[in-house]
Predict the 3D structure of the following.
Amino acid sequence: MRRRKIRVTRSVIPNMFTLMNLFGGFMAIVRISEGQFLQAAGFIVLAAVFDMLDGAVARLTNSTGEFGAELDSLCDAVSFGVAPAFMLFKAHFWQVGEYGVVVAALPAMAGVLRLARFNVQSTGSSDKRYFRGMPIPAGALTIISYVLFYHVQQGIIPETWKSLAITVVTVMASAIMVSTIKYDALPLPTLKVVRERPFVVGFFAIGIIAGVVSKGWLVFPFMLLYITVGAVRGFVNLLRARSESHDDDALEDDESDPFDV
């Protein structure tokens, strides 16, 4: 019999990076089950690194496609949806019973909904500078930075407030992910992008430097600032759009009946 040759395409390379993203999420879940939250957070961050690299490698090898996009979403659902949700459950919500299970699962469910919406609505002509709703890796970073540096640590938040605080953070991150608020994507570190969007590049650069220098303590405050800036900008744009629509309605009314008193 004639043997068939196994065909290896260029898409294998970026897909391997994507699968390493999934492996990072799986290892994070394993470490969370063992109570090793710091190591788990490290694996989630590692998954985020592979998540950024797979897209860059796909563009370099000219192997972007629907298969890679779907695979990326499936892996993101585990690494940035299920893993952070499981960390919330193990860190606090296991004590609250069935209610705790539901609340802890919110980031996973919201993240999957956001990924599905992104896959359906994304087109080649869409603005790559923004996301509609906070991206799921940012949601994961918000959750794990809060749990690791503020909830688990003693003396940062009073014990009587911890249950309410972690619930607010969980619900907030979940709601922002499924919202329609525009959030800036992490810009590529190129001269062209720096010239076109200096404020955005500077904003993310300061956040990364602050997170590294503070050994993670300033990551959650930076994520809160990121969420707030997007929400305020969305609110201002909404008011502006409504004001313009009212002006247009007034003009149309005047044109339709100029003699109306």
